[in-house]
Specification:
Blueprint lengths: L6 H9 L8 H12 L15 E5 L12 H4 L2 H4 L7 H7 L10 E5 L10 H10 L3 E6 L4 H11 L3 E6 L4 H14 L2 E7 L1 H6 L1 H13 L5 E5 L18 H13 L4 E4 L9 H4 L4 H4 E5 L25 H5 L2 H11 L21
Parallel strand pairs: 1-2, 1-8, 2-3, 3-4, 4-5, 5-6, 6-7
Amino acid sequence: MKGSTSRAGLYLELLGSLKFPQAAPKIFNYIKNKTLRPLPNNPCSRSSPVQMSLSMVNRCNLRCAYCGDAQDGTFDTAPKKEFTLEKIKQLFQTPLCKNAIYVNLAGGGEPLLCKDIVEIVEYLNSRGHLTLLTTNGILLPKFIERLTKAGLTKISISIYPDNIDFLRENLTALNKIHKIQNSHVITRSELEKKPEELAALVDFVHKAGSTRLRLWNCRPFGKGQNSSESFTSELPAFKDFYKEISKKYKGFVDWQGLYTEGDTSIKEKKICRELWQLVPIDGGGCVTTCCGSPVNLRAGINAFTNTSEEIFNHPAIVALREKFIDPEAELPDMCKYCNLLEDPPM
């Protein structure tokens, strides 16, 4: 099901953050992207992506148990990749990126470890982009006032076992400086063995003053990971938890990628605009498929050396789009367990 929070309220919230006239071409591009009929080969001149997801750094100050990058040792062994202000300026002059209305300054690591993060937010804001920072929050007290002054639109703090104690001490105070939304990955064992702790977590976030809590189904990545912590909407423990929380916190919890009994299955309808609307890029310029898949169909493509057309209409991406548009085609294997099979947050 789509999130239970008000989509109209979200749009109004974001509209108030737009800077004019810089945002005008980005709004126009957004409207085109949402209203034009999707085509497999869609030139950037027709409509370009509305959202960029940038992995600011490939380092992190946490080592969460279900993070594939942490458990594989990627954070400790991979060559350093980091966005700088100059790289951002180069990227957002291209047809691929310049009219994206929404820029997610995300992980792949912890974005607040990026040394130019404040300057990058200030630059993107000056161009009329909306910016979302996705962080574990540990370093946020050192940055939140400067990021707010720089024009950061939204802050999303992901809740993990490794940062929950910090958040219990700091989340209320952080919300008083800049309103925050939170997210948490639900595991099967939590639902079955610790539902009262999950309910207490929702209550804590609500009382701390956050705007919403997005709950995700666990999707393990990386070596040695398995799907034992994932679950379906038919899990009795999930049904009970959903019923309790939806009634008590109506409009606060966004059940991202979680489906309840009786809902029309988005998976069956093959709804996915990520392949047209979003382009994920890391600090080294590597362009991946979408933010929901561990499979990189654009292997070897680099945002700093390849053209916008080569990136946006890579043959493997076009082939995947064709499967979504064709009503007779089955859902691609790489997408069958994706919890993003719906319109993205924008």
